[in-house]
Design goal:
three-stranded antiparallel sheet
Length: 164
Amino acid sequence: MTDTPNAADVRRSHAGYDLTPPTEAERVALEADLSAEEKRVLLAHGTEAPFCGTLLGEKRQGTFCCRQCGLPLFKSVTKFESGTGWPSFWEPVDPDHIVGVRDTSYGMVRVESRCGRCDSHQGHVFPDGPPPTGLRYCINSVALSFTPEGEPLPDPLKRGDGIA
């Protein structure tokens, strides 16, 4: 018996990406490829130190993808300088690519941002961003990978999802 979903079970985003969660075997393989810091942030809902992330100053055109499963989360055209010390975006590639979860840790109420495919922790979303959405997706650099425009997107799950 296989744990691979059949075509009828595949859930696609409006942008056309396969949102089927990784199987247990795929999850084990994805997690084995993460560094200790990536595991702390993505799997244990940690936060990297502000102003230390490698993608904070990334200015090239391209796509920011989930470091764990490769799902495209944000385009560089939606990135802005928030002054918070983390990469900030005003809109995801597709609303289905980010899941918001109520977070009451540390004595405050926030909305945690998680990957819509693998459920990894990305950061938080706040209602103080720029127009047109008014949202600020405050994302850990270590939770993302960057693909320059025109290059193939990461595809660790072998789903053939596209080019940046």
